[in-house]
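Q: My labmate handed me this sequence with no annotations at all. I'd like to see what the chain might look like in three dimensions before we decide whether it's worth expressing. Could you predict it?
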Amino acid sequence: MVDAPDGVSRALREAAPDQLAEAADRAIRSALGALRTDVFVADYRISGLWPVLDPDLPAAGALARHTVAQRCFSSQQPVRDGLEDGACRLYLPLTVWGERLGVLLIELPTVPGPAVTGHATDIAGDLAVAMRAADRETDRYRRARRRERLSMAAEMQWDLLPGRSVAHRAFHLAGQLEPAYTVGGDHFDWSLDGDRLTLTVLNGEGSGLAASLLTAVTVNAMRNARRSDGGLVEQAELASDTVYYQHRGRRHVATLLLELDIHTGRVRAVDAGSPHLLRMRGATVEPMKLEQQLPLGMFAETRYEVQEFLLSPGDRVFVVSDGVWAAEPAGREPYGQRMMARSLRATRLQPATEAVGTVMRELHAYHADSDLRDDAVVVCLDWHGPRERDGG
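A: Here is what I predict for the chain of 392 residues:
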């Protein structure tokens, strides 16, 4: 039993990218004496969990949304579910670097003790890493995630994302795009490099494929500068020049660029006609006012300046696009005027990964569950403070 995780890990390394669920099933049955297993993946809206091994079950996602699997996914903790015959279903989160992929189900003949649960948790971690890597080599897991066909623009936007969440001792970060299957131009990007977390949120102009192409050019220009060790100013200016010389000022992209020193809480920012930045400190929500500069690509050789502000340990920061802030269905007041603060306060006890979903659900409810008229992005950043530096 001690070598169980090693045996499963070896089986995953040797498996074809599209056969990880089957390889894990065989190896877990052998290593842990499991009766059966299943792999559930979260859909694009994180509204349900859907099986990989038997994706044709019509009610699987709806059932998983309301059952023990969803409790495991939300809590990010192993959950045991005893059966009448003495067997036990063990649900384990499939998570890598804070990115929540889904849930692994292992059905065992008896209730597992701490040692078996620990082995199973290690196996789930190995499977999550393998699935994240395999996603570049197969479409199987992406097909399981989608509940309807994505538009071409949405396909490009989801492929461009760095992920939907990331966790570190010093911070937690999560983001969500809506409408998930037709999103066009709004986007977010991030990168962790040493003590520096870089986060950008784009309020894409227009809709459909044209908006997605504009966003792709902008994001890749900023990445090019960032990966060449360029700071926020270089990232903004290269992206602005690239968009301008492509469209001669006819198209531009409102963008917020942030760089967080994860150990001090100091944030450097370039507000290029940006999405909206709000800070929640305790139960108090307040907009953070930055000096707005020109959107990227509006004029040739636009130059940008950096501003700074300081976070306190425990601060939560939201960045939302105009599709969230300015939403005013059926002539009602803009969502950001009063309702947004109420939605943000409702997330106070939730982790960042749950908070973005709560805000999006509240936004849909504000629209009376009708289709959103504009793209919407919500990004949530929790900074825990310097006490986390050494794992304390």
